[in-house]
Amino acid sequence: MKALVLVDVQNDFMPGGKLAVPKGDEIVPVINSIQSKFDLIVATQDWHPENHISFANNHLGKEEFDTIQVEGITQVLWPAHCVQDSKGADFHKDLNTAKIEAIFRKGTNPRIDSYSGFYDNAHLKSTGLSGYLKEKGVSEVYFCGLATDICVYYTLKDAIAEGFTSYLIEDASKPLDVEEYEKIKKVILDLGGKIIQSNNL
Ligand code: VGL
Ligand code: ZN
């Protein structure tokens, strides 16, 4: 069984959004065109309460992109984004959502961020995604979405640790920071992840 996981294909990560990924919207037609190749499609949504710890405006005297320590982990302070039930948290309007069988929401705990679709950043709580995929008999998982160097990366890393054969579909994803992504690519390959293009599916 082959599953496709759409990571955070949400308005706030698109050009014009609160935490825009350059050319983030270009992945939408690519994702729509590959959905038919998979047995199962699921999605994640970044889904923060207003008082979320990752928002710079919740820390007096801090600026956007400053860092703080949370649970011994370095936390970047982001512009407020993907607030629960806001327009910015919706999927991009052109994303074909008809075949998405389940949506896993993350970053809902105000005290801890969650880049991965599987666990929060301190691995305190599971979203249930791993158990869901295993229950469905999935062995190969393909990841795409936004941002490649943050949420797609952390999700893929957890998938490898959970024992899934894990693929990044590079052209169906876009990084926030291109230089950071170049470093991360090597880590993905070293961990045993695979990087492919949509036309090789
Ligand atoms: C993301 C930063 C903060 C992402 C989510 O989806 O890559 N990045 N929250
Ligand atoms: Zn977030």
From TrEMBL:
InterPro entries: Isochorismatase-like_dom (IPR000868), Isochorismatase-like_sf (IPR036380), Isochorismatase_Nicotinamidase (IPR052347). Residues 3-197 form the Isochorismatase-like domain. GO terms for biological process: pyridine nucleotide biosynthetic process. Pathway: Cofactor biosynthesis; nicotinate biosynthesis; nicotinate from nicotinamide: step 1/1. Keywords: Hydrolase, Metal-binding, Pyridine nucleotide biosynthesis. PANTHER family: LD05707P (PTHR11080:SF2), PYRAZINAMIDASE/NICOTINAMIDASE (PTHR11080). This is Nicotinamidase. It comes from Mesonia phycicola.
